[in-house]
Design goal:
Ntdp-like, seven-stranded mixed beta barrel, magnesium, Protein associated with RNAse G/E, alpha+beta, 11 strands, 3 helices, about 45% strand, SA1684, metal-binding, about 180 residues, single chain
Amino acid sequence: MMIPEDGDEIEIRSYKHNGSLHRVWEKTIVLHSDETTLIGGNDRVKVTESDGRTWRTREPAITYFTTDYWFNIISMMRQDGIYYYCNISSPYVVDHEALKYIDYDLDIKVFADGSYKILDEDEFDIHRKKMNYPDVLQQILYKQLRILEQWVQGRKGPFDASFVEKWYDYYRRNYK
C-alpha cells in the first residue's frame, strides 16, 4: 500500500461488497499518514454518487481512516459543534488512484451533544442478502459496530473534541 505524503491531495472512493463504485470525494488534503492511519481535511468538496449525481459537502471536515479497524470517521465542523458520520467499512487501502474502502452500509451519526444513532440497518440487511455476505463478515461488521459505539461513548480518538480541533486548526492554518 502506498503511504501518501502530508499535504498530498487524494481522491476518496467507496465501493460496495460486489466491487461496484459507490461514491467519490473529489479531493482531500492529507494532514497525516502512516502505515495504519490517514487523517485528511476537506471543505465543500465535490462528491459524485454511483448514478452520476453530484453535490458538495456543506462544511469543513476532518476524516479519519485506519487499517486497524473496520470503520472510518468523518468529523464535520458546524456552527453548533462537531458532528460525526461514521461508516462501517473495510480497512482502507491507498494506491496510485485513490484511497479506497468497501462501505458496508451500517453507519453511526453522532450529534454535537454526544448522542448518537445507528443508521441504515435496513440497507445493510438488503445488501447482506443481495451480495451474499459470508457469516464471518457479518460477525466482523457487527463486532466493529460495537467497538465504534464504545469509542463514541468513551470519546476516544476522533470523538475527543480536542483531536478534531487540533487537526482542523492545522488544516485551516496550512491549507485554506
